[in-house]
Write a structure and sequence with these properties.
- With about 350 residues, this protein is mainly alpha-helical.
- Helix content is about 55%, strand content about 5%.
- It contains 14 helices and five strands.
- It has a three-stranded parallel beta sheet.
- Bound molecules: adenosine-5'-triphosphate (ATP) and magnesium ion.
- Adenosine-5'-triphosphate binds near residues 150 and 209.
- Adenosine-5'-triphosphate binds near residues 148 and 196.
Length: about 350
């Protein structure tokens, strides 16, 4: 069955929005608006799978919203809202808790990384996180999901859940007039030179909001001096930049900085090396700082301006939630019929 193309994605309001979130996700969200209908969510229900201070969460939700808008997402032409305002996400997630298997979730590497050694003490929500993510996407029957490389495994799980639901309820789906399959198989969109931006301190670790070292990441709110300081201190190796992309393979830190440059300049790593191959890191880092500041300063300024306009941000979220809920409620009505619930 052909589903109407629809893009869905989200970012958690867990503080410290960083360059990885921008290049791996938000910048791609902006580009996709030209070709698709898009729904972009601030996933606050996901955020509380690890402790969030209730005194800080509202500002974090508004900060992600302002980053979306400052980056160029149009909340009128598309939909921008925070997840907890559309209860259908949690409702469908419960159904998916009963579709997904514990064995599937046990394989999720993000849970293992985030729970760390003290797994017994992690929240049930952190374990079930991928089921909620599947619900986020499928409650809109979205077909395309732009994410960073770290979310690939969760997307595969969303596809497995969609398929198992379609199989388990095949007869009921058909009897209720929904044809052969009810949910699409959502496609991950993991593309470009910066699908996995790495920590500036360790080229084998992803840049992350939750990394305790602020030096490990460029925050979207960092000023020019801070950006320059962090890039100059970023870990590198002693060799000049290679001329060939293939030679980046064994050099994670060099690969990371070249990837960041390419993504910011809307070009490829090969093109960056054509221009900068043979350069010492000191020289290349200066060029990278200039590019970062040129690209992030306007975003930064607009985010600051919007962040103080709480009334505007909240009105965007309320309007987006109302429009999102219309679609989500439709899906839930059908899901209730399919599962066999009596409803109004
Ligand atoms: P947390 O540490 O709280 O999980 P996070 O930095 O992973 O925070 P998320 O809100 O979980 O941020 O992810 C939002 C989007 O940003 C997702 O699409 C994710 O794949 C993408 N993303 C996160 N980190 C990176 C990164 N280092 N490089 C590229 N994309 C990233
Ligand atoms: Mg994450």
């Amino acid at each position: 069955m052909a589903f109407k193309h629809l893009v869905f994605s989200g970012v958690q309001p867990t503080g410290n929005l960083h360059l990885g979130n921008y290049l791996g996700a938000i910048k791609r969200f902006v580009e996709l608006q030209r070709s698709h209908d898009c729904i972009y969510c601030v996933v606050d229900l996901h955020a509380i799978t690890v402790w969030q201070d209730p005194a800080e969460l509202p500002a974090a939700i508004r900060e992600v919203t302002s980053a979306y808008i400052a980056a160029g997402i149009d909340p009128k032409a598309h939909i921008v809202f925070n997840q907890s305002q559309v209860a259908e996400h949690a409702e469908l997630a419960w159904i998916f808790n009963c579709v997904a298997r514990i064995g599937w979730l046990n394989r999720m590497t993000q849970f293992k990384e985030k729970a760390g050694k003290d797994r017994e003490n992690a929240s049930v929500g952190l374990f079930a996180y991928p089921n909620l993510m599947a619900a986020d996407i499928l409650v809109y029957r979205a077909t395309h999901v732009p994410v960073g490389d770290d979310q690939k495994q969760h997307l595969e799980l969303s596809r497995d859940i969609a398929q198992k639901f379609n199989n388990d309820f095949a007869n009921s789906i058909n009897q209720h007039g929904f044809g052969e399959v009810f949910f699409p198989q959502p496609e991950p969109l993991i593309q470009g030179p910066a699908t996995r931006v790495m920590s500036l301190r360790d080229g084998t670790k992803k840049m992350s909001k939750s990394d305790p070292s602020d030096q490990s990441r460029i925050n979207l709110t960092d000023d020019a001096d801070t950006i320059a300081h962090k890039i100059r201190r970023a870990k590198t190796d002693p060799h000049p930049l290679p001329h060939e992309e293939k030679e980046l393979e064994q050099r994670p830190e060099a690969d990371n900085l070249v990837g960041i440059y390419a993504a910011l300049a809307d070009t490829s790593k090969a093109d960056v090396l054509k221009q900068h191959g043979g350069a010492q890191f000191s020289t290349f880092k200066n060029a990278l700082v200039d590019l970062l500041v040129a690209k992030l300063a306007p975003l930064n300024a607009e985010m600051r301006r919007l962040k103080d306009d709480t009334a505007y941000i909240d009105s965007v979220l309320a309007d987006g939630a109302a429009r999102a809920q219309k679609i989500a409620a439709e899906t839930m009505k059908a899901v209730k019929d399919i599962v066999g619930f009596v409803h109004r």
